[in-house]
Specification:
Elements: H1 3-23, H2 27-39, E1 51-53, H3 65-73, E2 77-82, E3 89-92, E4 100-103, E5 106-108, E6 120-123, E7 127-128, E8 134-135, H4 141-149, E9 156-160, E10 181-184, E11 187-190
Parallel strand pairs: 1-2, 1-6, 6-9, 9-10
Antiparallel strand pairs: 2-3, 4-5, 7-8, 10-11
Length: 192
């Protein structure tokens, strides 16, 4: 087994453990903890008038929509990721606009929605550690997207998760970019 296979296996085990802890939260706990993000929003280092990409939650992910609505009311333009090649693209999210199925149980703005380039990524994840390393869902969508966006302008990457998704250590690879911060129901932590 190669070193890369060993790392991939280790990440897969950590992913499954963290997702199992997340799934064990009751529906009421998930709602309350998701709503807590809005109470903590002042701690987010989001620049004034920044374009913010959120995400439409799937399965038992933390729900960023109340936080995103608060950011919209504070003057931020919002967008959602859309799966595209060679990396994610971002379409404007407008209040009341129709959303379409994007697969995986998530929704996205339609193809005719305005494309935006976000300044801030509010990102879903499976697991994170105290150094800001993250484990996604294994497809690499955000890794490729971050690499591409950072070539055009500075990018603030903030993970959104439940505190139970924290692990002792994420085995980071050379191409893995640590988060700038993580927000859970317990608060915001900056990294680096």
């Amino acid at each position: 087994m190669t070193d890369l296979q060993i790392l991939a296996n280790e990440k897969d085990v950590l992913r499954k453990q963290a997702l199992s802890r997340r799934a064990a939260l009751s529906g009421v706990e998930r709602i309350e903890k998701s709503l807590a993000l809005t109470d903590l929003a002042d701690a987010l280092p989001v620049p004034e008038r920044a374009i913010v990409s959120g995400f439409w939650p799937i399965r038992d992910e933390i729900d960023p929509r109340p936080l995103m609505d608060l950011l919209r009311r504070r003057g931020h333009e919002l967008c959602l990721p859309a799966i595209a090649e060679p990396h994610l693209m971002f379409r404007k999210l407008e209040r009341g606009a129709e959303l379409i199925s994007a697969g995986f149980g998530t929704l996205e703005p339609p193809t005719d929605a305005q494309q935006l380039v976000p300044d801030v990524l509010l990102m879903p994840l499976a697991a994170f550690d105290a150094s800001g390393n993250r484990i996604g869902y294994g497809k690499g969508h955000y890794d490729k997207t971050i690499a591409a966006l950072e070539q055009t302008k500075p990018l603030l990457c903030i993970g959104l998760a439940f505190a139970v998704q924290e692990v002792d250590r994420v085995p980071a690879e050379a191409h893995d970019k640590p988060l700038n911060g993580i927000m859970t129901e317990t608060g915001y932590r900056a990294f680096g």
